[in-house]
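Supplementary Note 3. Input sequence used for the single-chain structure prediction.
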Amino acid sequence: MRHRNAALFAYLLFAAILCAAPAPGSAQESKLAQASAPALLPAKTATPLRVATWNVHDCSSTDRKSGETLLFHPRIAATLKELRIDVIAFQEVQIEVRKGADIALLKSALDDAGWPMPYLAWAKGPQSDDLAIFSRYPIEMSRPILDPKGKDWPRPALEVRVVVDGTPLYVFNAHFKAYDEARSLGQRLAQARALASHLREEFGGTLNRAAIVVAGDFNTVSPYDMQPGGTLDILQLRDNSGGDDDFLDLNMKWRYFSPTYSSSRYSSVTDHLIVSPALAKDSDQASIRVLDAPDSGRGFPISDHKLLVFSFTLAPQRQSAR
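The predicted structure, written as discrete structure tokens, is reproduced below.
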């Protein structure tokens, strides 16, 4: 599908990354992280951050007239530099060499753009679309979670702990099942419950103090996804009687009716940035933006999904939330 030169370049660069870094979630990575990660010392001042989520639709397209494959990694990198993004959750990237090695190409494009994001984590899905998180700050821990094997949902999620000037920021990246028929809705609900349970088990009583971002394309296209007890209610931990640990869906709260996905047939709110109480308390309409994907240079956007950006200040903590 891709040009031979681009594929060869991707293969060599991706191989170099794999050789240089242990696999995410591996025992080797865990030992290296413990040995080399900076200690969680008190941060002297709060740190301004911009965290984003974007379904980049494989970072490519095919020109219908010429059949030419168009690669958009440089345009994506230029957009992240222009917006000064610090951490981004990508959906629909390809980590396999035979599919173009989007992670390697994105990393190279960001370096070339003068906006390096050297800290990477990814989760390989059993289907063709994978997840990745890029960061300008060290990723101290990363692991795939919600293994789909034997479960109703099709893809895993990805969890990372980013250390920002001594303060941990937890980012969860997920891409839920699409379509609005009953089975697909059931798969979204099942994975939302599993993710909510994971958050409660992992953070316990610190849920309302930890800095947590749940990002991704949750494919909330059914009216029930948005209703009480639906997918978004579950992801905001509103499925219990207590309210002190409720998360907040930023774009649904502050940018309601702003579609995040558009096609020739319809528009909908499928992508979300959902945050823990510690981050929600200082949010407002100005803190969350829903931005059009840049033009491909051929008169159409590089992705049918928009880019969501959350700007906030990460307050210093004396130790990890866990």
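Residues 4-13+48-314 form a domain with the Deoxyribonuclease I; Chain A fold (CATH 3.60.10.10). The longest strand covers residues 47-55.
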